[in-house]
Amino acid sequence: MGIELWQWGLGALAAILVGLSKTGVPGLGIAVVPVMAAAFGGKPSVGFVLPMLIIADCFAVTYYRRHAQWDKLWGLFPWVGAGILLGAGALWAADHFQLAGGAGGKDLFKPFIGLIVLVMLLLHLIGKVMKDRLTPKAWWSLAWTGVAGGFSTTVANAAGPVMTLYLAGKGMKKHAFMGTNAWFFFLLNLTKVPVYVLLSLIHPDTPMFTRQSLLFDLCMVPVIVLGALLGRWLLHRIPQRVFDILVLCLAGIAAVKLLLP
After folding, report:
1. Phi first, then psi: what are they for 207, rounded to 5°?
2. Domain containing residue 72
3. pLDDT of the residue at 155
4. What's the number of CA atoms in the CB half-sphere (13 Å) around residue 233?
5. What would the mean pLDDT of 18-34 be, rounded to a whole number?
6. pLDDT band with cut points at 50, 70 and 90 for residue 78
7. Per-residue model confidence (pLDDT) at position 252
8. 3-state secondary structure of 237
9. Count of structural domains, the chain
10. Residue 3 carries which DSSP code?
11. In a 3-state reduction of DSSP, which class is residue 112?
12. What is the biggest distance separating any 2 CA atoms in the chain, rounded to whole angstroms?
């Protein structure tokens, strides 16, 4: 089954947003998830998006490679790993249930992803109000951040708000924030590749990666590059508040659409 013109259009929009989010406007990334899910379905969209994110991550770590503060990340990694395992289990269980006919032929992943995006948006808004009062300080709070980030990124590539909330409360300057965020997601997204491959081997009828999805991602490379360059150019020219409002509205509308039958 070929990719239709409207899907190419939404995919190109998502590719631009991916590039922008990695080099200058991190909040834009949350809008990518529901847009791609609306275009390609819940589970397939997760596999479509991951290579796009890794390509954009390469630009982010190139731009900000010297600014990462690794001491802010070491404590997170074990908990993120636990979240990835939980996310992989959730994907397997949902896929198994759907293949067994329990979903009545409906796409279980689309409303699931829509719900996650709405939760992440709510968390993002709470973070705007509470600021560093929500910064993890106790070990259990750090654990929650890591597990939530690992789980949400595995099932929907939607851990951006969790990490933004965590890093924003650390009092880092802009470049340190971007560098730490860039390296974290670059390593995290690479880690997810073998997880998705394994899930594809377990359920070959509904693979995370397909020849079609990888060819699509390859075609989107120039668009992602354009978005990355545009992000650097726009960073100091467009008010952040304008971007925030547009992104939240776009992501919210798209997420609600995913929840509707």
Report:
1. -70, 150
2. 5-259
3. 87
4. 7
5. 80
6. very high
7. 67
8. coil
9. 1
10. P
11. helix
12. 52
Whole-number pLDDT of residue 139: 59
Q: Which amino acid is at 160?
A: G
Residue 240 has pLDDT above 90, yes or no: no
Of 9, 49, 27, the closest CA to residue 234 belongs to: 27
**Do residues 241 and 27 lie in contact, with contact meaning Cβ atoms separated by under 8 Å?**
no
Global pTM value: 0.82
**Is the Cβ–Cβ distance between 255 and 111 less than 8 Å?**
no
Mean pLDDT of 94-113: 64
The residue written with tokens 């529901």 in the block is 34
Could you tell me the CA-to-CA distances from 145 to 132, 180, 183 in Å, in that order? 14, 16, 17
Q: How confident is the model at residue 209 (pLDDT cuts 50, 70, 90)?
A: very high
Number of Cβ within 10 Å of residue 66's Cβ equals 9
DSSP for 128-187, please give it: HHHGGGGS--SHHHHHHHHHHHHHHHHHHS--HHHHHHHHHTTT--HHHHHHHHHHHHHH
Note the pLDDT tens digit of each residue in 108-128: 666 777 777 777 677 667 766
Distance CA 18, CA 201 (A): 28
What whole-number distance in Å separates Cα of residue 240 and Cα of residue 25? 8
CA angle 124–51–189, rounded 5-degree value:
55
Q: Which residue has the higher pLDDT, 204 or 221?
A: 221
